[in-house]
Amino acid sequence: MSTKIFGIDFGTSSLKIYRKGEGLVYDQKSVIAIKGKNNVIAIGNEAFEMYGKSPEYITVDFPLKHGAIASLSHMLSLLNCVFLDLSRQHGKFRGAEFTIATPYDITEVEKRAFYDLVDSSIVRPKKLRLVEKPIADAIGAGIDVNNSQGALLVNIGADTTEISILSMGGIVLGKLLPIGGNQFDDAIAAAVRKKYNLVIGQKTAEYVKRTLTDFSRETERTCKAYGRDIVTGLPREREISAALVNQAVLENLNAIIENIRTILERTPPEIASDVFANGMTITGGSSAIAGLDQLVQATTGLRVSICQKGALTVIEGLTHILEDPEYDALAQPLKESYYNEK
Ligand SMILES: Nc1ncnc2c1ncn2[C@@H]1O[C@H](COP(=O)(O)OP(=O)(O)OP(=O)(O)O)[C@@H](O)[C@H]1O
Ligand SMILES: [Mg+2]
Questions:
Q1: CA distances from 99 to 72, 166, 208 (A)
Q2: What percent of the chain has pLDDT over 90?
Q3: Consecutive H or E run containing 123
Q4: Is 307 close to ligand 1, i.e. is its CB under 6 Å away?
Q5: 323: helix, coil or strand?
Q6: 185 and 115 share a domain?
Q7: Of all protein residues, whose CA lies closest to atom 11 belonging to ligand 1?
C-alpha cells in the first residue's frame, strides 16, 4: 500500500486538502454546524448553506478567525468529520503523512496549535510537518523561492491579508493583517445600511461585492439586493450602486496598501531594489477583484501581477513541496522551541 501523503491549507473561509499523486481532494467552506452541545449535523459547504439561517439551537461556526484557530473543539470536530469523509474514498489514513501551511506572522503557540490539532485528530499521523504559508503561496504563484531574488507577495484571503518579503527560500519580513474579503463584505453591509436603510446578510454582501466591485473603470452598474428595511422592519429589495460598493472596499484596500508601504520602508535596500525591479504578486481569493492590479499599481508605483486562481496558490505550492525534492526541505517538523515556549 502506498503511503498517503497530504497537504492542508487551513483557510479561514475554506479548507483545502491535497493528496500527493491525486490532487485536490477537499475544497469546502471551513464551517461546522452543531446541534445542542456537540452533535455535528453538517460540515463544509452543507453547513455553510445553514449559515445565517439556522434556529438558535443550531450553532454554525467558522472555527478559524484571522488565520488562527479560534475554537479548538469545533476545529477538531470539523477536521475529524472531513477525515472520516475522505477515508470513505481513500481508505484508512493509518500511517499517513501531513504537511500543514501556517501563517508566518502568528505566535509559535498558535502554530503549535495547528500541529497539535492534526496530531490529535483521528488520523494519528506518522509524520507531521509545517511550512510557512507565504513560502507555499509563493511557489504556487510561480515564484522560484529557492533561487529567486527578493519578492513581495500579498495574499488577500477571507479574514486575513498576509504581506511577505521573501528572499533565498526564506521570509525576510512578514505581516498578517486582520483584513480580507470578510471585512470588505462587512464594510459593504454597513454602507448599504447607512445609505439605503437596508440590513443585508453576509452572503448578500459577498454577492454584491463579487458582482459590482471593479476598480478598472468608472461604472454606473447596479445590482439588486434583498434585506430588511430598518424603518418598516419588512423585507425589501433595493438597487445597490457600484460606486457605493467600490468606496466601501476601497477603504479596506487603502489600509492594506498603507501596510505594504510600511513593509517596503523596512525592507533591506538590496532586496527592495529587487522588489522595485520585479514588482509584486497578489494572491488569495480576494485578488479576483476586478481592477485590483491597476489600483495597487497606481498607489504604490510597483508593477503588480495577479495570480489566476489566487485562492489555490497555497495548496498548489504545497503540491510542489510534496512532489518536488528540490522543495522538500522547506517543510519542517515542529521546532523544539515551540514546546518550550510558555
Ligand atoms: N470574484 C471575486 N471578487 C471578490 N472577492 C472574491 C471573489 N472570489 C472570491 N472572493 C473572496 O475571496 C475570499 C476567499 O479567499 P481565500 O479562499 O483565499 O480565503 P481563505 O484562504 O479561506 O482565508 P484566509 O487566507 O484569510 O485564512 C472570500 O472573502 C471571497 O469573498
Ligand atoms: Mg488563505
A1: 19, 20, 36
A2: 89
A3: none
A4: no
A5: helix
A6: no
A7: 286
For residue 223, which amino acid is it? C
Residue whose C-alpha is closest to residue 51's, from 171, 173, 204, 172: 204
Amino acid 1: pLDDT = 46
Note whether 150 and 298 are same-domain residues.
yes
Classify the phi-psi angles of 167: left when phi > 0, otherwise alpha if psi is within -120 to 50, otherwise beta. beta
- CB-based burial, 149-180: b 16+ in 10 Å, e otherwise: bbbbbbbbbbbbbbbbbbbeeebbbbbbbebb
Q: Which residues contact 25 (CB under 8 A, 6 or more apart)?
A: 6, 17, 18, 19, 86, 89, 90
pTM above 0.90, yes or no: yes
**What is the total count of domains within the chain?**
2
CATH code for the domain in which residue 331 is found: 3.30.420.40
At 77, which amino acid appears? S
Cell of 244: 457605493
Give the mutation target among 8, 12, 13, 215 for probing the ligand 1 site: most ligand atoms within 8 A of CB: 13
Q: Can you list the residues of the chain whose pLDDT is less than 70?
A: 1-2, 335-342
Q: So what's the pLDDT on residue 336?
A: 58
Distance 88 CA to ligand 1 centre (A): 29
